[in-house]
Design brief:
Blueprint: E1 32-35, H1 37-41, H2 51-64, E2 68-72, H3 78-89, E3 98-104, H4 107-116, E4 122-130, H5 133-140, H6 144-163, E5 169-177, H7 184-198, E6 206-212, H8 219-232, E7 239-245, H9 252-261, E8 266-269, H10 283-291, H11 304-315, H12 336-348, H13 383-394, H14 400-417, H15 423-435, E9 441-451, E10 454-463, E11 466-474, H16 477-486, E12 492-502, E13 512-521, E14 524-532, H17 535-549
Helix pairs in contact: 2-11, 4-6, 6-7, 8-9, 12-13, 13-14, 16-17
The structure holds acetyl coenzyme *A (ACO), 3-methyl-2-oxobutanoic acid and magnesium ion (MG).
Enzyme class: transferase
Region (Regulatory domain): 437-561
Cofactor: Mg(2+)
């Protein structure tokens, strides 16, 4: 019994590689990608994919641009065996795509596997056996030499069987399973023996795949282990050094990136990190991380939603809303300061310039996503988010001080309701607050007459429901309307006035002008807004809206004129 449960565990020892080079390396070209969605991904599902789903996934992987796809563990099930046959016999494999099949290093399974690939143009036969001390001692009860012999004998068997099917180009892949938990010298010894048994040459390379079957240490340790193999493997020029990180510690993506920096040529993984336990490395993330560094990864995720939908339907597992690049929320900002920065970033981002929008590491459009859900408003939001939605969804560009005022209104609403408000909710709130505010004054219409020294106006309104006509004169319609209000004892001043055209149209479907008037009245300062096809109408609406918002009670009840 341990006093502290944590004492059940031991720290992973560092790798003795004092002159490690990988920390200074820069990834300058994408690795060879290998999708194991149909094998490692498939073996980890509640319900493995049926033939239809496998075919759908295979076709999509080809479309994305994978040139190597592990399609099955043919000895595992009739479904897997038949799927390989269907691919080959139905000519479903594009000329530039190589299928891969996995088998344990066991003779009957190897024979069944080789039978499944008969007639293929080219195939990677992938053999594995676990070689770490625990597996040697606990699972196999074998010595190092016996474990090595298991690998070598299997490779020789594949070699002999491949010689009997010359119509098929057989490429050997060997995985020392549990590589990360194995003594490096022993891993090298087994891999070198495999390379020799296959008689690999630069023209006929062997794929040596070093899996983090279980992620056991920080990703820099994996990089050290890979650099050590890269520098010490025999016949390195005849070896394609491959990575297969799992994500037990949540650092598979970092491990893959560091592993490539450490000299690996190839990366195996699954879309969205499907795979045993916490998954294989997520190839979408690794690839798009490269994309954001200005390098095309050679995989096409320009319709991310379609890829996501297909994977969800085939695996019956949903993508987490915060999954890098793909989740529903990854291009969404709720918080005020983020929204403010994004809005400002979009305002200055030029079409052809380098991408420089704060908080968005990639242009959502490059993944086929639109900007609709980038800013969403809840109680954590500020004026920037509200203004962004008003502008992007309704074409209303609010003056800055109106943004401040209206975001206070939205904040009250979100505090009271507790949940997110949609753009449509905000638009309704804006209308209720500024456009439809009709108490005490409700505007109906006006008549304007030019005079020698200005303009005379007559405004028809209801005052607390009682019809009235207000008359006034001024040097323009706004001034005349202010004077008309004085006849009711309403002494208002216009502090600022702006007119803009609006993307949205009125309820009558007309193109709209928008007037924003900042009204000072009875020691209060409030915005009023008017929207109408006629700018003068919009201006008078805005003044009356501002007066109403100041909460003014007219001193004199109106008489009909
Ligand atoms: C890390 C990975 O993802 S490896 C891939 C794992 N994927 C799968 O296992 C999915 C497909 N597998 C299967 O359907 C089955 O395991 C089969 C059909 C291949 C084999 O089934 P079974 O013969 O019943 O064996 P089982 O699955 O119980 O495997 C355990 C046996 O395989 C041996 N074994 C395990 N791995 C290996 C290996 N790489 N090489 C040789 N033998 C192995 C074990 O020692 C054990 O042998 P024992 O029965 O003599 O003690
Ligand atoms: C078969 C091997 C490569 C594997 O899936 C693993 O070790 O995780
Ligand atoms: Mg695996």
């Amino acid at each position: 019994m341990h006093a502290q449960p944590s004492q059940k565990y031991r720290p992973f020892p560092p790798v003795n590689l004092a002159d490690r080079q990988w920390p200074d390396a820069v990834i300058s070209q994408p690795p060879v990608w290998m999708s194991t969605d149909l094998r490692d991904g498939n073996q980890s599902l509640f319900e493995p994919m049926d033939a239809g789903k496998k075919m759908r996934m295979f076709k999509m992987l080809c479309q994305i641009g994978f040139k190597e796809i592990e399609v099955a563990f043919p000895a595992a099930s009739q479904t897997d065996f038949n799927f390989v046959r269907t691919l080959i016999e139905g000519n479903h494999i594009p000329a530039d795509v190589t299928i891969e099949v996995l088998t344990q290093a066991r003779e009957p399974l190897i024979r069944r596997t080789m039978a499944s690939v008969r007639g293929a143009r080219r195939v990677i036969v992938h053999i594995y056996n676990a070689i770490s001390p625990t597996f040697r001692d606990v699972v196999f009860n074998m010595s190092k030499d016996e474990v090595k012999a298991m690998a070598v004998e299997s490779v020789k068997l594949v070699k002999a069987m491949a010689a009997e099917m010359p119509e098929t180009e057989v490429i050997m892949q060997y995985s020392p399973e549990t590589f990360t938990a194995t003594e490096l010298e022993f891993a090298k010894e087994v891999c070198d023996a495999v390379t020799e048994a296959w008689d690999a040459t630069p023209a006929r390379k062997v794929i040596i795949n070093c899996p983090a079957t279980v992620e056991v240490a920080t990703p820099n340790i994996y990089a050290d282990q890979i650099e050590w193999m890269h520098r010490n493997l025999a016949r390195r020029d005849s070896v394609i050094l491959s990575l297969h990180p799992h994500n037990d510690r949540g650092t598979a993506v970092a491990a893959a990136e560091f592993g490539v920096m450490a000299g690996a040529d190839r990366v195996e993984g699954c879309l969205f990190g499907h795979g045993e336990r916490t998954g294989n490395v997520d190839l979408v993330t690794v690839a798009l991380n490269m994309y954001t560094q200005g390098m095309h990864p050679g995989l096409d995720f320009s319709d991310m939603n379609a890829v996501g939908r297909t994977v969800e339907e085939c695996t019956q597992i949903d993508i987490h809303p915060r999954h890098p690049y793909a989740g529903d929320l990854v291009f969404t900002a709720f918080s005020g300061s983020h929204q403010d920065a994004i809005k400002k970033g979009f305002a200055v981002q030029q079409e052809d310039a380098h991408w420089n929008v704060p908080y968005l590491p990639i242009d959502p459009k490059d993944l086929g996503r639109n900007y609709d859900s980038i800013i969403r408003v809840n109680s954590q939001s500020g004026k920037g988010g509200v203004a962004y939605l008003m502008e992007s969804q309704y074409g209303v560009v609010m003056p800055r001080r109106l943004q401040v005022e209206f975001s206070g209104v939205v904040q009250q609403y979100t505090d009271a309701h507790g949940s997110e408000v949609t753009a449509a909710d905000i638009w309704q709130l804006f209308n209720r607050t500024y456009i439809e505010s009709a108490s005490p004054l409700r505007f109906h219409d006006y008549q304007l007459q030019s005079q020698e020294d200005g303009q005379a106006i007559r405004i028809s309104v209801d005052i607390n429901g009682v019809p009235a006509v207000l008359g006034g004169q001024g040097n323009g319609p706004v001034d005349a309307a202010i004077q008309a209000l004085q006849g009711m004892g309403i002494y208002a001043q216009v502090r600022s006035f702006e007119e803009r055209s609006v993307g949205a149209s009125t309820s009558a479907g007309e193109a709209t002008a928008c007037a924003f008037v900042e009204v000072v009245c009875q020691d209060k300062v409030c915005y009023g807004v008017g929207m109408h096809a006629n700018i003068v109408t919009a201006s008078i609406q805005a003044i009356i809206s501002g007066v109403n918002r100041c909460g003014v009670a007219p001193a004199v009840m109106a008489k009909s004129a």
